[in-house]
Amino acid sequence: MKDKTLKEIQQEVDQYINQFKEGYFHPLSMLARLTEEVGELAREVNHQFGQKPKKPEEEENSIQNELGDIIFIVACFANSLHIDLNEAFDQVMHKYNTRDKDRWSRKDQEA
After folding, report:
1. Measured distance CA(28)–CA(34) in Å, rounded
2. CATH superfamily of 6-99
3. By the 8 A CB rule, do 75 and 7 touch?
4. Percent of the chain with pLDDT over 90
5. DSSP secondary structure string for all residues of the chain
6. For the chain, which residues make up each domain, given as ranges?
7. Tens digit of pLDDT for each residue in 37-65?
């Protein structure tokens, strides 16, 4: 499978969702779904790196699957609100590259 751009991901999700009469969830429901998925990611991270091992009867899952679920829901959320994730990401990176440019110790500069 080839690497996908954010635009391609949004288009693929839109094609998937638009085959159903129900379409996209309302924004508050979408936020609830995103929160659920982040909780599932937290549970997996805690199982793998934290101090709470899975119970023997618990279903196997992975951090990779949970991150994939989050990407899907974020694309749904963005699509439902007509937000271009490329543009949103570019704006956020500009913010971090300007606001936080001197906040952290750079690897390419001596101490």
Report:
1. 10
2. MazG-like (1.10.287.1080)
3. no
4. 72
5. -----HHHHHHHHHHHHTTSTT-SPPHHHHHHHHHHHHHHHHHHHHHHHSS-PPPTTSPP--HHHHHHHHHHHHHHHHHHTT--HHHHHHHHHHHHHHHTTTTS--TTS--
6. 6-99
7. 999 999 999 998 988 888 888 777 889 99
